[in-house]
Amino acid sequence: MPTFDIDWAIAQIREAVNPYPKAAMFAIAQEGYNSLFEQLIACLISIRTYDEVSLPVARRLLQQANTPAAIAQLTPKQIESLIGESTYPEQKARQIHAIAEQIMAHHNGELPADLTTLLTFKGVGSKCAHLALGVACNLPFISVDIHVHRVTNRWGYVQTKTPEKTTLALEATLPLPYWIEINQLLVPFGKHICTGKQPHCATCPVESMCQKIGV
Questions:
Q1: 122 φ, ψ to 5°?
Q2: At what angle do helices 51-64 and 36-46 cross, to 10 degrees?
Q3: pTM higher than 0.90 for the full model?
Q4: Residues near 215 by Cβ (< 8 Å), separated by ≥ 6?
Q5: 3-class SS string, the chain
Q6: CA 93: distance to chain centroid?
Q7: pLDDT tens digits, 91-111
Q8: What is the distance between the terminal CA atoms of the chain, rounded to a whole angstrom?
Q9: For residue 135, pLDDT beyond 80
Q10: pLDDT digit string (tens) for 31-69?
Q11: Would you say the C-alpha torsion 68, 69, 73, 78 has a positive or negative sign?
Q12: How many angstroms separate the CA atoms of 163 and 212, rounded?
């Protein structure tokens, strides 16, 4: 089995995913919702929710209120009515409202680009914090969701059991220029080509290097 050439693979995957919808956070950033607060809220909405649902839901909320001050002026019930199609809307509405109030109370209404701060918010884990900081602030963080975890382990590029351990393994091996882009590429790649069940190996551009772990 040849050594996995990540530079070559990234170039091939960029081209391969062109026909498919962009990963949700990158798609909504392109629409102009690219502040750190907007990215964090959109990511929280997307948790356990398909992109096809979370994108219009996040868009609806952010069109109504897209700053901590504006969100804080809504009630949790009003937020819930706007994000009702997402999973756990009541819980997420309370979390979104609480985050906005915390930013107003402790950060003068401006969300600092600081990982530790983001992780203090209830409902925000490392995946969302990393992704928001990467997309909104171009800070080098790797966001590992189920697709990034599955694909990189299937390749044999990392050998881990959990997304958290995949994050650490990629931080040790993945070249820094790809830290943000790996999520942007492997979400559509994992949804449409290197799928969880019956991956489309015959049309995969990096099949020649893939160890097909677990296939």
A1: -65, 130
A2: 140
A3: yes
A4: 154, 199, 201
A5: CCCCCHHHHHHHHHHHCCCCCCCHHHHHHHCCCCCHHHHHHHHHHHCCCCHHHHHHHHHHHHHHCCCHHHHHHCCHHHHHHHCCCCCCHHHHHHHHHHHHHHHHHHCCCCCCCCHHHHHCCCCCCHHHHHHHHHHHHCCCCCCCCHHHHHHHHHHCCCCCCCHHHHHHHHHHHCCHHHCCHHHHHHHHHHHHCCCCCCCCHHHCCCCCCCCCCCC
A6: 19
A7: 999 999 999 999 999 999 999
A8: 16
A9: yes
A10: 999 999 999 999 999 999 988 999 999 999 999 999 999
A11: negative
A12: 18
Contact assessment for residue 111 and residue 40, using Cβ atoms and an 8 Å cutoff: yes
Q: Is the dihedral of CA 146, 136, 56, 84 positive or negative?
A: positive
Residue with tokens 């993945």: 174
Residue 1 has pLDDT above 70, yes or no: no
Tokens of 106: 């402790």
Question: What residue type is assigned to position 111 of the chain?
Answer: L
